[in-house]
């Protein structure tokens, strides 16, 4: 799971730097809001943990490790995933696209795996969390489409009507407004 989330994080940074910055903001401002440690302290703890086992980790490498861990956490925690999807739809869509493309790419390698859920398990992420994120994006898109189709229409006499407005339909029927 952590390896996949590393790949996802690297993909976002390389391909969508603005979205990666938004994810970093989400981690710092949402995920760590009630944490006793700051993001910087978590990075320093990671460096120390590596040092304790005689490995060297730079601050930049520790940052990458921590962000990958947080991506994995988001993809396995419905509450975090929901908060991300509701507040950053563009970033969430990029994450969903990467997951789909990744599964499509590996499905030919693992031809014996038939169930999509098995791929999610192999990646170490929860399918139901990803499905919930996708549902939030779809709902948001449907709501935005509904809003744009109900835009106001300006009649000849400068009276504004909504497509869902009874007055609009009455104006059309009475001939006060041209269709």
Describe the structure in your own words.
This protein is mainly α and 179 residues long. The protein is 72% helix and 3% strand. It has nine helices and two strands. A two-stranded antiparallel ribbon has the order 1-2. Helix 3 (39-52) crosses helix 4 (59-74), helix 5 (78-87) packs parallel to helix 8 (127-149) and helix 6 (89-107) crosses helix 8 (127-149). It is globular and about 55 Å long. It starts with a helix and ends in a 5-residue tail after the last helix. Mean pLDDT is 81; it is low at 152-179.
Order of helices and strands: HHHHHHHHEEH
What is the residue-averaged pLDDT? 81
Helix/strand/pairing category = mainly alpha
Separation, N- and C-terminal Cα atoms: 57 Å
- Total number of β-strand segments? 2
Oligomer: single chain
How can the largest sheet be summarized?
A: 2 strands, antiparallel
Binned, the helix content reads: over 70%
């Amino acid at each position: 799971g952590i390896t996949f989330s590393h790949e996802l994080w690297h993909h976002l940074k390389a391909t969508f730097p603005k979205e990666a910055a938004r994810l970093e903001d989400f981690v710092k401002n949402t995920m760590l809001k009630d944490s006793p440690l700051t993001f910087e302290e978590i990075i320093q703890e990671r460096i120390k943990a590596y040092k304790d086992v005689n490995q060297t980790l730079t601050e930049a490498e520790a940052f990458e490790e921590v962000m990958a861990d947080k991506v994995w956490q988001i993809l396995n925690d419905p509450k975090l995933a929901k908060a991300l999807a509701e507040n950053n739809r563009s970033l969430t869509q990029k994450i969903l696209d990467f997951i789909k493309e990744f599964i499509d790419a590996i499905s030919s390698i693992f031809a014996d795996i038939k169930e999509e859920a098995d791929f999610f398990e192999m990646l170490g992420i929860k399918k139901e969390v990803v499905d919930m994120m996708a549902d939030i994006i779809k709902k948001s898109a449907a709501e935005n489409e509904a809003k744009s189709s109900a835009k106001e229409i300006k009649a000849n006499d400068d009276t504004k009507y909504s497509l869902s407005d009874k007055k609009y339909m009455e104006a059309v029927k009475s001939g006060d407004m041209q269709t």
